[in-house]
């Protein structure tokens, strides 16, 4: 990125320092200096080790394990920066915490995604920059400006580097068909989806049919995140049993919780393309996983925000 932005600083929490360092590399600025002290009673103290008065500050912190500690660390860092007289503080959260808790679908529960938005504003964030929220309505939970980037264009550009002439994009269920359509449209590929049904009192929906032609095709499953991997791996087997030549997946957020890494190794999924919104620990890495860096896109968005330019221009 040409030119060094003035009056701009980027700090990192403990969740994903590698991504923050890569963002700074693209911005041609050093990573901001801070340090965290963890006391014997598990309290945290965060000290900003350089002057941020009247600076435009961005804090990079993603939602990954240990999740609660990373949330608290982010909130404390935002508060420290506000009281250090930063001109503006933007929370850069590539994977937003509690994104699936976006509605009151049971009695007496918290809409926790809304709570996270409130806590960020209360702690000192003037705005938020995030990536591919699980539900679009979460963007409306914020009382401060919130920009949502999407990894779909970057993932599609990477996929176009391969021969995809025999590929069909597949949504793992009907509910994902609209999002899968974004990939199919950008890649100029046909779209199929798996029809799931419940039988009797069974609460688990099972794949029943494939809507679309997948016989002899290279199927590409797409989704916004992979947690335990149950949906992706069961869909892989279902498609192969119905004549697919191969099955790969492109997923934005690699949560990979529980036994996901073990299940990936045992599955017949050919490849899993993910982004670096969340770091993948060494014990969860696999030759099947390819990680696409979103640091260039995030750095460009930071520059647009810093310069007062439109972020929506990045989607065109």
What is shown here, in short?
With 316 residues, this protein is an alpha/beta fold. It has 8 helices and 14 strands.
Describe this structure in words.
The protein is of the alpha/beta class. It has 2 domains: 8-150 and 295-315, Rossmann fold, CATH 3.40.50.2020; 153-292, Rossmann fold. It is built from 8 helices and 14 strands. The strands form 3 sheets. A 7-stranded mixed sheet has the order 10-9-8-11-12-13-14. Helix 7 (260-266) links the parallel strand 12 (246-254) and strand 13 (272-275). Helix 1 (17-27) packs across helix 8 (295-307) and helix 4 (152-159) crosses helix 5.
List key phrases describing it.
316 residues, alpha/beta, Rossmann fold, 2 domains, 7-stranded mixed beta sheet, 5-stranded parallel beta sheet, 8 helices, 14 strands, 29% helix, globular
Strand order of the largest sheet: 10-9-8-11-12-13-14
The CATH architecture of the largest domain comes to 3-Layer(aba) Sandwich
- Distance from first to last alpha carbon: 19 Å
Query: What can be said about the biggest beta sheet?
Result: 7 strands, mixed
Quick one: CATH class of the largest domain? Alpha Beta
Whole-number mean pLDDT: 93
* Gyration radius, rounded: 21 Å
Total E-strand runs: 14
The domain tally reads: 2
What level of helicity do the residues show? 25-40%
Number of discrete helical segments: 8
Low-pLDDT windows of residues: none
Dominant shape: globular
* N-to-C series of helices and strands: EHEEEHEHEEHEHEEEHEHEEH
